[in-house]
Design brief:
Layout (H helix, E strand, L loop, with lengths): L2 E8 L9 H8 L4 E7 L1 H4 L6 H19 L5 E5 L2 H11 E9 L5 H16 L3 E5 L14 H9 L24 H8 L10 H15 L3 H4 L6 H4 L4 H5 L5 H9 L8 H23 L21 H9 L5 H13 L4 H14 L5 H10 L5 H12 L12 H8 L4 H6 L14 H5 L21 H15 L3 H15 L7
Parallel strand pairs: 1-2, 1-4, 2-3, 4-5
The structure holds flavin-adenine dinucleotide.
Flavin-adenine dinucleotide binds next to helix 11, helix 13, helix 16 and helix 18.
Length: 488
């Protein structure tokens, strides 16, 4: 007779506190194991990169430090989820699987459906706990806000970890050595992962870094320090939205720093608002939110795409932003928006050719925020105003002295500050663009940005009157802001 067990299946919830699935398992009367499944099909995806696996691995190591006290650990399985559960099922009689519900891309949604069928066939009960205030299966946004506030103010779960239900077993699907070696070497350029670091970061934001939060939010250098930098921790669940929200709301400095703290809390809500959209329509990963924009032609220019990805467009703010996010995994909101605007409007490229590239760079990649945000900036929602960011103005407004630009573009180290935003004017008579020069040379602008912006404006606003764009606009407003009959 096989021994009965429960399983806690970790996903984007890599923490030991405020964790409903862990609590369910601990409260039950049979042994349980805690697993994370690193799926070969997922890590091969175009939106996944080594840095994501590294963040996950280090977060789990951090969890294991806590869990050791209770003779527990998280086991990382390397295989497809269905195969992993089938393998465990051969050894044990699985009674329950506890996890958080995942607002993921279609592939994870399909994977979950496959696993669900297997569980049903085997009489295994799968309890998926709600997370981030995102609701499953809703067909209307009515009451969503109220529900979100109720949810975020619920008492935090204090996980206690009794050591009464320990079980010894051998992980039959460990990671291959070479992969383990690669993902266990966490690069020092990236922000540090794990539950401990998440709390350190939140505490330092509340106590020291937040006084200039709103003032610096669009400055690509200063925001690195004055923004909360909670995004990666939230994306991989080192901390819950609820923990963040309550910590800031109840903080002793709240009254002194109300404006900044409120702005932070609002953004935590935006986070869940975007994720809720994606929960209902995760097709946003591959198709325009407003189907009418599928009709818009965007001739592919491979050269433009690689100039953008390499940080070699000739526009200092665009290039510095790309180079910095590749190196560090983080960029402030304004510069993310500008990169998308430059790609989709100035270079007139299809958003799909840039979205996965940025997803791979962002350490905080969260599909439910990333794709809706990317499309909002690309102008393919039909419900938001179309913003075309002037890359020179962004640079003048938010990096006046060229500090950020000079940090990331060594070719411009000797460029006077007065010319840093439009170096082509200063160097037109110099050797900056001279390929034969033995100095590192900066590239000439690949487009005329004013002309391209004017073309984009005409194209994007002109398309707003398309009949499909208009009818889709109504559908989107109904589905994501008011009552509707749509359900999934
Ligand atoms: C094209 C594009 C792609 C993006 N992709 C992601 C992504 O994959 N993951 C991600 O977490 N954020 C994404 N953002 C939103 C935003 O840029 C980041 O959340 C923010 O820069 C993270 O830094 P922070 O934690 O210091 O943010 P703070 O300003 O301190 O905000 C606190 C938290 O609120 C949430 N938040 C902040 N701004 C937004 C926003 N505009 N929309 C939704 N949630 C927000 C984040 O969880 C963030 O950690 C994207 C924005 C754009 C324009």
């Amino acid at each position: 007779m096989k021994e009965k067990i429960n399983i806690v299946w970790l996903k984007r919830d890599l923490r030991t506190q405020d964790h409903q699935p862990l609590q369910f398992a601990d409260d039950a009367n049979i042994p349980f194991i805690i697993i994370y499944i690193l799926e070969p099909s997922m890590i091969k995806r175009a939106d996944w990169s080594l840095r994501h696996s590294q963040f996950v691995f280090s977060s789990i190591e951090n969890m294991n430090k806590h869990l050791k006290k209770y003779s527990r650990s998280v086991d990382i399985f390397y295989d497809e989820a269905l195969k992993v559960f089938k393998e465990i099922d051969r050894q044990f009689n699985i009674i329950n699987v506890f996890s958080h519900a995942e607002t993921g891309v279609k592939e994870t949604w399909d994977r979950d459906n496959c696993v669900r069928k297997f569980f049903k066939f085997k009489n295994i009960y799968w309890e998926e706990s709600q997370t981030n205030g995102v609701l499953r299966g809703i067909n209307s946004r009515e009451g969503w806000d109220k529900n979100w506030y109720q949810n975020i103010r619920q008492p935090l779960i204090i996980n206690k970890f009794s050591n009464k239900h320990i079980i010894q077993y051998q992980n039959p699907r460990p990671m291959p050595k070479e992969l383990k070696y690669r993902i266990s070497n966490y690069p020092s350029e990236f922000q540090e992962p794990g539950e401990n670091k998440a709390w350190e970061q939140l505490n330092s934001f509340a106590c020291n870094r937040s006084s200039e939060y709103l003032f610096n939010i669009s400055n690509p250098s200063k925001s690195r320090h004055s923004c909360s930098r909670m995004s990666a921790h939230l994306a991989w669940g080192n901390i819950s939205s609820k923990q963040c929200y309550q910590f800031i709301l109840n903080h002793v400095h709240f009254d002194k720093n109300k404006r900044n703290f409120r702005a932070f809390l609002t953004r935590l809500k935006w986070r869940c608002h975007f994720m809720q959209k994606f929960e209902v329509e995760n097709e946003y990963e591959t198709r325009c939110i407003n189907k009418g924009y599928e009709l818009l032609e965007k001739p592919k220019n491979k050269e433009f795409i690689s100039h953008w990805m390499d940080g070699k467009t000739g526009f200092p703010m665009v290039d510095a932003s790309i180079r910095s996010v590749k190196e560090t995994g983080w960029l402030n909101f304004r510069m993310r928006a500008m990169l998308v605007s430059f790609f989709c409007h100035h270079l007139d490229q299809d958003w799909r050719d840039g979205a996965n590239f940025l997803a791979r760079q962002f350490l905080d990649y969260e599909p439910g925020i990333h794709f809706p945000q990317f499309q909002m900036q690309a102008g393919t929602t039909g419900i938001n105003t179309i913003r075309i960011y002037n890359p020179v103005k962004q640079s003048e407004d938010h990096d006046k002295e060229g500090v950020f630009i000079k940090k990331w573009i060594p070719e411009l180290a000797s460029c006077p500050t007065s010319s840093i935003h439009e170096p082509w004017n200063y160097y037109s008579t110099n050797d900056m663009f001279n390929e034969n020069s033995n100095k590192a040379t900066y590239i000439n602008p690949i487009i005329d940005h004013k002309l391209q912006a004017a073309n984009a404006r005409k194209k994007m606003w002109g398309h707003r009157s398309n009949a499909l764009v208009k009818s889709e606009k109504q559908r989107i407003l109904m589905l994501h802001t008011r009552s509707s009959t749509f359900a999934r």
